[in-house]
TrEMBL record:
The keyword Chaperone is assigned to this record: yes
Family annotation (InterPro entries): CobW-likC_sf (IPR036627), CobW-like_C (IPR011629), CobW/HypB/UreG_nucleotide-bd (IPR003495), P-loop_NTPase (IPR027417), Zinc-reg_GTPase_activator (IPR051316)
Lineage: Bacteria, Pseudomonadati, Pseudomonadota, Betaproteobacteria, Rhodocyclales
Family of the protein in this entry: Belongs to the SIMIBI class G3E GTPase family. ZNG1 subfamily.
One GO cellular component term: cytoplasm
Keywords from the named record: Chaperone, Hydrolase, Nucleotide-binding
Full protein name: Cobalamin synthesis protein/P47K family protein
Tagged with keyword Iron: no
SUPFAM superfamilies named among the record's database cross-references: Hypothetical protein YjiA, C-terminal domain, P-loop containing nucleoside triphosphate hydrolases
Amino acid sequence: MTEDPLPIPVTLLTGFLGSGKTTVLNHLVQQPELADALVIINEFGEMALDHLLVAHSTESLVVEMSSGCLCCTIRGDLVQTLRDITWRFSRNGERQFRRVLIETTGLADPAPILHTLMTHPQIAARYRLDGIVATIDLATGTNTLDQHVEAIKQAAMADVLLLTKADLATDEQRAALAHRLDGINPAAPRWTVRNGALAPGKVLDLGVFSTAGKVPDVERWLKEEAYAESRFRPRAPDRYSPASHGRHRYTHGQREHGDVNRHDDHIRAFCFTVDEPIAEDTLATWLDVLMAFVGSNILRVKGILNIEGQDAPLVIHGVQHIFHPPVPLPAWPGEDRRSRLVFITRDVGRELIEATFRAFRQVPPQPEEHAA
Ligand SMILES: Nc1nc2c(ncn2[C@@H]2O[C@H](COP(=O)(O)OP(=O)(O)OP(=O)(O)O)[C@@H](O)[C@H]2O)c(=O)[nH]1
């Protein structure tokens, strides 16, 4: 079989129960841009129906997985499905699809699914995450975020947020949801979608790893200006004032509302900036330690890094304690040569990120041991 040498992009379509995933999917798969997409629909329950509702222009490219929820019981099935489809959907040695769209169940935690995509030896070599798209119901979204931590995680980890059912929402509901999302995921573009209709370009090719021969749009991908910035200065760590930068109140651990039990009080989104080039060893040790101790609470990290001795930047991308292999870019995307890392975390504040970085940066290199 002729194998495309480039990994197959995978889009994860997530969103709480009834928030409009299938409606969006149904619209998307009928667009010419997705004619070569294979759709995997994960449903929960004995009567799996959604796949019957998705009218793909190429019917044979819809696969349904309904024996459980992808993020928990059937992760092995996902591996199997992703492994099998390359030959199952091949004709005359040619793979019949160029990308994969996975619709999760409404209660899915995207993180374990991403782990599978990024770490399973056979899957990670053949597929790459293109992006996470989350649907949120404009009318009921705020309530859902109040009550379901799964919905918070879906919104926090998304690269793009699709705000559905605009026709049913009041201005107050829209404003409340927008305010809420500012705290949970300030950088992800938000598109209002009515009855599932949206241009496929808004949800495809979202990562920096997506582009075959195209110069990656790192600034768009990182969108670091959307986060409250914190700049690391080696000699005067006390002088910076994160609060003075912040327009996202949750990033500073302050609450402006009364409900202490709200799930997103635990979610923080912030940008960490380092002015000076970073030694590769410092970076590796710092990230290792960070991931080992608080990795499961780091929902996403994206970064463009200035590494000592290198002319061009390195891009990193992680989900919890799993990192994609760093990607060297051919050149800096603009004038800004600072390292910029954006974090979306649960119960991990910027203080910890800064303090650990400071600690590792100040550790002098260990002299090599000499044999006696
Ligand atoms: N009024 C209105 N209804 C919508 C819109 N988008 C989706 N719906 C309806 O909302 C309901 C749920 O939509 P689905 O697309 O099935 O939602 P889902 O997220 O796939 O649902 P689950 O599979 O149960 O998690 C359906 O009745 C849709 O027709 C919209 O923009 N406006």
